[in-house]
Amino acid sequence: MSTPITLRQLEIFLAVAGSGHVTRASQTLHLSQSAASMAIAQLERQLDTPLFERRGRSLKLTERGRLLATEARELLARVQALPTLLSGAGEALRGELRITASQTAGCYLLAPAIAAFARAHPQTRVHCHIGNTAVAVQSLLAHEADVGYVEGRVSQPDIVAMPWRRDRLEIVVGREGPQPRRKLDASQLRKLPWIMREPGSGTRELFDQAVRTAGLDPLPATQTFNDAEAVKEAVIQGFGAACLPVLAIADDLREGRLIALQAPMLTLERQLWRITRRGSFDGAVLSAFETWLQSQQQQQPQSLSARSAATPASPRRPRSARS
Prior knowledge:
two-stranded antiparallel ribbon
């Protein structure tokens, strides 16, 4: 009978795969280089296949090595979750959760929820990396995150996307900037100086798609930022118009720093998505966190976008009032 593969072998294999070097992996795992090399060689013999190919001084996974890496990460994640899964009733929740999120979801929905969850479960560790939808997908595929929450639609065979929440965008200008009529037609849309998120952003994707669906030519960006707050600040300073999530601008609309414009030809509502790797395992901390998210959402049934839309903006102050 062949020698069974051990969890330690898989741990060493993943460390080498992640670093691309046996020496670096052995240092991380506090092993000798010879012990790490022997573990990899034995694993390759047990599986009767090469797992790495040498490229210069580095090691790259073969096709079968990449397949093993995917399965090994999931297996080790399940093993690491066992203590929490089997803990007795009343014991504190323990463990780590790695979240990847696009900006709207991460900054305006998840950040306060993570802080509250951490207070309720102080022995958990939640790490949230915020980028755009494309970055979130790559983080999942690279096994750098356990779950993602994004606004962009994902079409990737190795990613499972489930509807999470609804969101709405508004076209806005600053009270000190260009002041078109509140109801825009196609020609006025084209004349506005547009400040936009970067390509790959879910917000940018929805706006571009809405413009195409309305049969309009693409609207060029005069400025582009990879951060919603930077876009918002440029608009507040009067440099142009933008299309931003209501979640990001609700306070500014209420306080009159931004003015909402209507563009009836554009559909600016969207679905937010929960994304995971296909076949991935939801650990105890992730399950508890999502139960927490659901309970928080149920306590606030009226969406922020609906509240902000119902709240009139402050009257526009004269230009001389600007400090």
